[in-house]
Amino acid sequence: MVDVSGDLYDRYLKRLTDFFLSTVLIILFLPVSVVLAILIKFDNPGPIFADTPERVGQNGRLFKMFKFRSMIVNAHMILRQDPKFRGLYAKYKRNSYKLKDDPRVTKLGKFMRKHSLDEIPQLFNVLIGDMSLIGPRAYYPDELDNQQKKYPKTRILVKKVLSIKPGITGHWQVSGRSEVNFDKRIAMDADYVQKRSLWYDVRILLVTPWAMITGKGAV
């Protein structure tokens, strides 16, 4: 059961911290965001922001996650519906919904994804309250459903993970990122939910820039 202090932290101090820091970071990353937006338009035809479906947020509520587009247009549906990608989609599901060599990723997208630059717009999700700076990963509905079928023992952990807001960064993101399979990832996120505190978040926040710079485990 989640410590009551964690709930109080989420409701007051964490929300205040999220609002303040996301505002500051949006301003600091504005020049980078403008440059990336221009480069995306030159690199590959299509919108600046990713055209992906909604994600599962706190208590199962769906929300639109903002991300810079790092793939070809309509990449999400193409993988799932185009017969040419049937084998790749099967591999995608086997590998906990990650692909190391994804043909849908653009040239610029590979760089952005390695260094998590495509996630900068999620700061606006934090600002409006859909997400937190620190928290579990936000999953697609079909991904969450299929992975729980693959790993039935994770259902109770998923319920715990969905009790709080997802984060831009978190325990698993700075401890292996995409190299960690779903069962271990959910266990790490559930452990974060149980232990979350101001000091725990500060430690994760301090490690995050190094994870972005090195790009370790990113795809």
From TrEMBL:
GO MF, any single term: phosphotransferase activity, for other substituted phosphate groups
InterPro entries: Bact_transf (IPR003362)
Residues that span the membrane, as ranges: 20-40
A Pfam cross-reference name: Bac_transf
Start and end residues of each Bacterial sugar transferase domain: 14-213
Alphabetical keyword list: Membrane, Transmembrane, Transmembrane helix
Family: Belongs to the bacterial sugar transferase family.
Protein name listed in UniProt: Bacterial sugar transferase domain-containing protein
Organism of provenance: Candidatus Gottesmanbacteria bacterium RIFCSPHIGHO2_01_FULL_40_15
